[in-house]
Specification:
The chain is mainly β and 64 residues long. The protein has no helices and five strands. The chain has strands at 10-13, 24-30, 39-43, 48-52, 57-61. A hairpin with a 4-residue loop joins β3 and β4 (48-52). The protein is globular, with a radius of gyration of 11 Å. 14% of the residues are buried.
Length: 64
């Protein structure tokens, strides 16, 4: 399963457990990264970009 996202989309991290927080971020790149991750997201809470698995992300607002 692959999430269809575009650069500029606002996404949220879908926690895998009830103990994880939900984070909002902005998609800055898509591609293939180390560990088979496929999305690069700038997370505001971390103030940095990180590569992520799209299966753990949900689009909140699409870019135009």
């Amino acid at each position: 399963w692959r999430l269809s996202v575009k650069i500029g989309d606002l996404v949220k991290y879908r926690p895998t457990t009830d103990y994880e927080d939900i984070y909002l971020g902005l998609v800055v790149e898509t591609g293939v990264y180390a560990g088979r991750k496929d999305i690069k997201v700038f997370w505001s809470v971390l103030n940095e970009a990180a590569t992520e698995f799209s299966k753990y992300l949900e689009v909140v607002s699409e870019s135009r």
